[in-house]
């Protein structure tokens, strides 16, 4: 048996035993011109006349041909994170961006991905939506020196390590990035949803280099955001800013849908500037004002990225809003 060196995504469909997902998920055959979405690139098969070879290169696309969101069951056992199909209403939502690179990757482009990248598989991440007693959620800004999604606002999180549970991994990442030390008994945890994350996030900005499924976990605490703020000790190598967002601010953030055009309509009651905690290279916190427009930036189609809330984070925040509404909380 091959030694497991890291947690990777495995896929199961039609009651087939789970298989390790490829970085660029598989090549399949279909009868030429029949049953394929228009967005799928194909080439005529030289081995099977009348058949076309096409790349099903998205984890989400493994479970749905045309949609960007699907429900799945997930489990983490024996250092394997397994996704399998399920009936609607009985699973966890899995979503990809409308502009997910693997959705549009051609067979030739998939084959051109360097072997050292292809061999990585699909990694598993965990991100923590830490909700305070007064219903605010913590976001952190990744430092500009990080290779992946620099200067982007996300919840605390990172990779799941061998023999960890999702909750344990999330609490460890929360502690390492923010200094907040919470025990499993201090929180109530809930898995909100899964996000298929790719970097760079669009083909127009380069070929895929990283491929993850991110698990978004909601942690409810009995502490207010002021109490939690007093214990913040961010790691300056990873975090350059911290921000507590409430439901009204979240509504403004998620109204700026990545991949869409047009201006964002300002929401009533949301201030034009937001107070954030800047993190110095020494780890010292200081307050500053950040224009709301920065948090409402959309992912650019080309060129350098901009300071913004990541697309996956917007998805998770939408799930958080739905969860609040389901609890009967006015938001």
UniProtKB/TrEMBL annotation:
Q: Where is the Nudix hydrolase domain?
A: 119-270
- Which is one GO molecular function term here? 5'-(N(7)-methylguanosine 5'-triphospho)-[mRNA] hydrolase activity
Family annotation (Pfam families): NUDIX (PF00293)
Q: Which reactions are catalysed by this chain?
A: a 5'-end (N(7)-methyl 5'-triphosphoguanosine)-ribonucleoside in mRNA + H2O = N(7)-methyl-GDP + a 5'-end phospho-ribonucleoside in mRNA + 2 H(+)
Enzyme Commission designation: 3.6.1.62
* Required cofactor(s): Mn(2+); Mg(2+)
PROSITE patterns the record matches? NUDIX
For this record, the Gene Ontology CC terms, alphabetical, are: cytosol; peroxisome
Biological-process GO terms, alphabetical: NAD+ catabolic process; NADP+ catabolic process
Q: Which UniProt keywords apply?
A: Hydrolase, Magnesium, Manganese, Metal-binding
Concerning its family, UniProt says:
Belongs to the Nudix hydrolase family.
Tell me the function of this protein. Acts as a decapping enzyme capable of hydrolyzing monomethylated capped RNAs (in vitro). Hydrolyzes monomethylated capped RNA after alpha and beta phosphates to form N(7)-methyl-GDP. Shows low activity towards unmethylated capped RNA.
- The entry's protein name is m7GpppN-mRNA hydrolase NUDT17
Species name? Oncorhynchus tshawytscha
Q: What is the lineage of its organism?
A: Eukaryota, Metazoa, Chordata, Craniata, Vertebrata
Gene name of this polypeptide:
LOC112228485
């Amino acid at each position: 048996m091959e030694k497991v060196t890291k947690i990777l995504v495995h896929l199961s469909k039609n009651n087939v035993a789970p298989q390790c997902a490829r970085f660029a998920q598989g090549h399949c055959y279909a009868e030429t011109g029949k049953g394929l979405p228009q967005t799928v690139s194909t080439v005529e098969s030289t081995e099977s006349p009348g058949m076309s070879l096409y790349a099903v290169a998205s984890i989400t696309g493994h479970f749905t041909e045309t949609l960007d969101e699907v429900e799945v069951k997930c489990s983490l056992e024996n250092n394997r994170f397994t996704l399998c199909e399920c009936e609607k209403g009985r699973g966890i939502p899995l979503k990809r961006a409308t502009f997910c690179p693997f959705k549009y990757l051609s067979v030739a482009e998939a084959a051109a991905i360097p072997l050292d990248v292809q061999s990585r598989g699909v990694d598993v991440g965990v991100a923590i939506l830490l909700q305070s007693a007064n219903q605010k959620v913590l976001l952190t800004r990744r430092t500009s020196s990080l290779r992946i999604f620099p200067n982007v606002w996300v919840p605390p999180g990172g990779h799941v390590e061998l023999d960890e549970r999702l909750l344990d991994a999330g609490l460890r990442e929360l502690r390492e990035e923010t200094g907040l030390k919470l025990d499993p008994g201090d929180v109530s945890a809930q898995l909100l949803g899964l996000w298929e994350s790719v970097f760079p996030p669009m083909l127009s900005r380069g070929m895929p280099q990283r491929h993850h499924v991110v698990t978004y976990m909601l942690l409810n605490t009995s502490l207010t955001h002021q109490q939690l703020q007093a214990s913040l000790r961010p790691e300056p190598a990873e975090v350059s800013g911290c921000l507590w967002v409430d439901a009204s601010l979240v509504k403004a953030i998620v109204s700026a849908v990545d991949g869409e055009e047009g201006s964002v309509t300002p929401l009533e009651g949301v201030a034009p500037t937001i107070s954030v905690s800047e993190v110095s290279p020494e780890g010292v916190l200081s307050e500053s004002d950040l224009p709301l427009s920065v948090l409402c930036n959309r992912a650019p189609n080309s060129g350098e990225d901009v300071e913004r809330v990541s697309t996956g984070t917007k998805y998770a925040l939408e799930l958080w809003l739905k969860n609040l509404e389901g609890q009967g909380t006015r938001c």
